[in-house]
Amino acid sequence: MSSSEKPMKPIYRSDVVPPPGECLGSIVADDEEVSPLKERIQQKRQKRKREKGIPSDEGRLQYSVEDIPPWYLSIILGFQHYMIMFGATLGVSLLTSRALCIGDEDNLAKSQFIGTIFFVSGICTLLQTSIGTRLPIVQGGTLAFTSAAMAILSLDKWRCPSHTTDNMTSSSSINVTAPDEEIWKPRIREIQGAIMVASLAQVVIGFTGIMGFLLRFIGPLAIAPTIALIGLSLFNTAAYFAAKQWWIALVTIVLIAAFSQYTKNINIPCFRFQRGVGCVKQGFPVFRFFPVILAVSITWTLCAILTITNVFPSDPAAWGGQAATSVRMDVMQQAPWFRVPYPGQWGTPTVSAASVFGMLSGVLASMIESVGDYYACARMSFVPPPPMHAINRGTLIEGIGCILAGAWGSGTGTTSYSENIGAIGITQVASRRVIQVGAVIMMIFGVFGKFGALFVTIPDPIIGGVFIVMFGMITAVGISNLQFVDLNSSRNLFIIGFSFFFGLTLPQYIVKNPGVIKTGSDAFDQIFTILLQTNMFVGGLAGFILDNTIPGTDQERGLIKWRQMLHDVTPMDTSSQESHEERVKAIYDLPLITPFLRRHRWMRFVPFLPTFDENLLSFDRCGKRHKYKMRRHGQENEGKRQSLTK
Hints:
Mean pLDDT: 77
Distance between the termini: 39 Å
Number of helices: 26
Helix content: 55-70%
Low-confidence stretches: 1-6, 9-35, 52-59, 163-179, 569-578, 619-636
Radius of gyration: 27 Å
Largest sheet: 2 strands, antiparallel
Shape: globular
Oligomer: single chain
């Protein structure tokens, strides 16, 4: 090289070693031309991996929504989801059976209720993951319906024969035998009819697509008291079970707290086989996954030891006698090995206007909670937020699932389980197929009669300890919605305080003074009595009215942060709008029939189909074009992100 020639300056790229003094990725050379090719190669790679069942590289997930793990791994992970939802579903079943006046001696009926709710939960989960939102969401029994059912059953004609004025604290002394089944069967038939008819409202909301319109008026100040009062209104029930042996209840509470909070980051070493690598050691967060199951198992074993050593009194009526494991062992002999639940197994459902209106409060609370779960599941699964047609279809399918739950006689409706959504973040497995396998496992265990009978033998103090933790968590979840509002605003503090306190005091007054509402019509008297006895309805309605009538900015009300949380783009690669659109179609479109639907232009007017045109929800006002906050998949946020990146 001659001295006159200048040395050629090296070209640095962001994907190789940077020059001295430069940060990695600070110098870019024609990366824009290479990125589309990289993206196509990556998509083909991911497609081949999905076909072969190899874990996905997308985000931090081991398996993404569309991935299909090997069959043996799908069974293990599906059973894990079943175990996670087991505690909440079991609690709902036992709480419902007590509200229906099923006596302490009729443990066979309780086992049948447990089997029914698990069987129906499996059916609803399959529907939701297949033709609903198609997200990996587990469906199960909800306390929102149970709380409404308890308000319905507090009417004079549905009170238990040995009932006192306080139906939440009195002990049922009914000894329901086979000839006395008609004590509780008319009550379950009334609840069945109320759930089925009230759930039609959820079907209509999903079918017409007005959920987006309703969300414009429902904010954190209305949601917080609605959900929190579900847990607060049940504290007497938790105390009733725990008071039978407080020491056993406290042991259960301490163990749940220890496993879920203190030892949640401790992983138990285990081994798994990985293709091409061999045996691999991996930590498994057992305590984080199964705190309730572990706590109940340990305390149950302790009760069995104390029963064998005659520490507990042999008389079940004595204090501490209900903690003995021998109290309900006869149910294991009475229960059949196999029993398939079927619609109308308790008789023909009955319908009354008062019960239907009372159950509507549970339907609305469950529906609003599920919409938030849809967005949370999408974020946890590293997929785009669900489009409006997926939200509408999920609401529609959930309403149909509640109708099925009512027809089968589960005593409650179904809703999305946030516990299982949290499990996706821990396991990094968001496969839709895993949830579907878990749904099949629910149905299989729901058919085994001995399995449901086994969990009826759990002593009441253990159930009381689980209830105290469970109801407290539900209350905390409701209160957590207040993180979006301005808590320094006197306006918001007034709404929060009044909604919570009024939601507790007015129902208590109605319960203590039966017959105080006199409108001149027995039907209207029952309707208003049930509604005003439902804590979540009174508190939620108070928060809704005050939040929409007292002047306040959207930022002060928490609407801006709350909607931003719902519609925020998930942390995934959306470098091109085309790939983003294709990703949305692959996840949320209906399988097999979507190409047929796109051939017909009129399908764009159907709110729950993938062909739905969201621009139809806009309207003209004051000469300007206004659109609701329903833009698809956070495209506007993504455009801002790309402009800032450039």
